[in-house]
Amino acid sequence: PYERPALSKAYLFPESPARLPGFHTCVGSGGERLLPEWYAEKGIALILGTEIVKADLASKTLISATGEIFKFHILVIATGSTVIRLTDFGVQGADSKNIFYLREVGDADKLVEAIKAKKNGKAAIVGGGYIGLELSAVMKINNLDVSMVYPEPWCMPRLFTAGIAAFYEGYYANKGIQIIKGTVAVGFNADADGEVKEVKLKDGRVLEADIVVVGVGGRPLTVLFKGQVEEEKGGIKT
């Protein structure tokens, strides 16, 4: 268990980046680092590398991929979400190399390698939410030439008023980040090695890119509980 916000912030810093065990859970909030030993000391069985493939809420039973059975009295569902990929919608060229999503530490490791390999290159960020804003900033810190594209009239529309968004957009523009609003990525062109080279936008513009990071949202992971719980708006109703 690790502090996930670090993956879009300090994990990608060029100087003294965050690495495990430095960002185990709770370290970010100034609490104790919850290393594996912490769980053992508190009498908590921390079972890693184990995927639950079936949940039977009626019989209060979970079954792992290897057939192990876990019984429970109380179940906390904290399965989070899975990242929405452009390949899900059949976007042309979305499977090119150096198109990244940021969900877990493995994704961040791949992105770190790409940043090192494409020094002083061009980065295109697709999406204007948390991931879009944070990755645009971190790419700029790594001396890449950054463009950020999103369809909404301003960044973080679920959270920001037009005025707050205008402040951040101005701040980013002053740092040299190009912001392109009101359009979406509809395709990608790759070179002979299959590495992304261009992002094609719906408004006809084409952006050069050595690295693309896509942050267009997530979907709740509810498949284990289908038909056993009440759902609403794609998630479990609580």
From TrEMBL:
Keywords linked to the UniProt accession: FAD, Flavoprotein, NAD, NADP, Oxidoreductase, Redox-active center
Task: Give the source's domain of life in one word.
Answer: Eukaryota
- KW tRNA processing (keyword) present: no
Which reactions does this protein catalyse? 2 monodehydro-L-ascorbate radical + NADH + H(+) = 2 L-ascorbate + NAD(+)
E.C. designation(s): 1.6.5.4
List the PANTHER family hit by this protein, alphabetically.
APOPTOSIS-INDUCING FACTOR 1, MONODEHYDROASCORBATE REDUCTASE 1, PEROXISOMAL
The protein depicted here goes by the name monodehydroascorbate reductase (NADH)
Q: Name the species this protein comes from.
A: Actinidia deliciosa
In the UniProt record, the gene name given for this protein reads: MDHAR
